[in-house]
Amino acid sequence: MQDAREKRGDVRRRARYVGLDVGEVRLGVAALEDGVATPLSTLTRAGTRRDIAAVQALVGLPPAGAVVGLPPEADDPRTCAARRAREFARRLHEATGWEVVLVDEADSTAIARARLQALGLRASGLRGHLDSWAAVEILQRFAAGAPAEAAPRTAEAPLVQGRRSRGRR
């Protein structure tokens, strides 16, 4: 008899999903269909609205959902990378209506780099491929039944940065 994680993995492998590795400069995009994750493209970030439009154009028909990589420092939701991933996931859901989940992306870039180097790509040739292959790794984790966190439905409060107030107490 299958446990819940195996059943979840079976459903995820049969459906079509888009995977996203959201960076500050680039956005890696991959697709999962019939259990096979394939890199689609690495996009240069152009603002969240434009990025979402570019992903929709790349993917074509609406997928069953989107899987956004959540950086390992997600335990501290105040970090920039974790906030960026969560905010992108929230806005992607708002703009498309897709089911959007976040999956741990720890070491996905390092794994992607090792795979590409094993294929013979030199370090100088990785830039255009690395992020889409990291998105492949994120999708493979999702398909294997990795825990997924639903995308936030509301915006997070902005971080307060700066000096302590020296006003009256």
Q: How do the strands and helices of this protein lay out in sequence?
A:
Blueprint: H1 4-14, E1 17-22, E2 26-33, E3 36-44, H2 48-59, E4 65-70, H3 80-96, E5 99-104, H4 108-118, H5 130-143, E6 149-150
Parallel strand pairs: 1-4, 4-5
Antiparallel strand pairs: 1-2, 2-3, 5-6
Helix pairs in contact: 2-3, 4-5
Can you describe what's shown?
- With 169 residues, this protein is of the alpha/beta class.
- It has a single domain (4-150), classed as Nucleotidyltransferase, domain 5 (2-Layer Sandwich).
- It contains five helices and six strands; from the N terminus they run αβββαβαβααβ.
- The radius of gyration is 17 Å and the shape is globular.
Biggest β-sheet, characterized?
6 strands, mixed
Strand order of the largest sheet: 3-2-1-4-5-6
The CATH class is identified as: Alpha Beta
Strand content: 15-25%
